[in-house]
Design goal:
Length: 111
């Protein structure tokens, strides 16, 4: 399998970022989704999306909080140039999870 690096870089933060899905934006940049954890994988996390320009510079970042652990696993661009992300929310007390769907505008806003 051939692998191509399209972006490389990082941000300085005490948080851990995990990207599970990436899609190209209309301006040749990228939007990624995943999870942001406060300090490490054992901490509870929140759903996270980030928009990068074609050079990997951050344009915007959105955190979608939960009362427990939440992750966004898959992302697509919609016909209105917004995004639809799917994932899972797990409560802090329970061992089960629920399907989670977020629809955003082009800037990652849900309202």
């Amino acid at each position: 399998m051939k692998r191509t690096t399209i972006l490389s870089g990082g941000w300085t933060s005490p948080a851990s970022y995990y990207v599970w899905s990436i899609t190209e934006s209309p301006d040749s940049g990228y939007v990624c989704c995943g999870v942001i954890n406060a300090f490490d994988w054992d901490q509870l996390g929140d759903g996270w999306m980030v928009k990068l320009d074609r050079d990997g510079n951050m344009i915007w970042e959105k955190v979608y909080p939960s009362n427990g652990r939440a992750e966004l696993f898959y992302l697509i661009r919609t016909s209105d140039d917004g995004y639809l992300a799917t994932g899972a929310k797990m409560s802090e007390q329970a061992d089960d999870s629920n399907i989670w769907v977020i629809k955003t505008d082009a800037n990652g806003n849900t309202d």
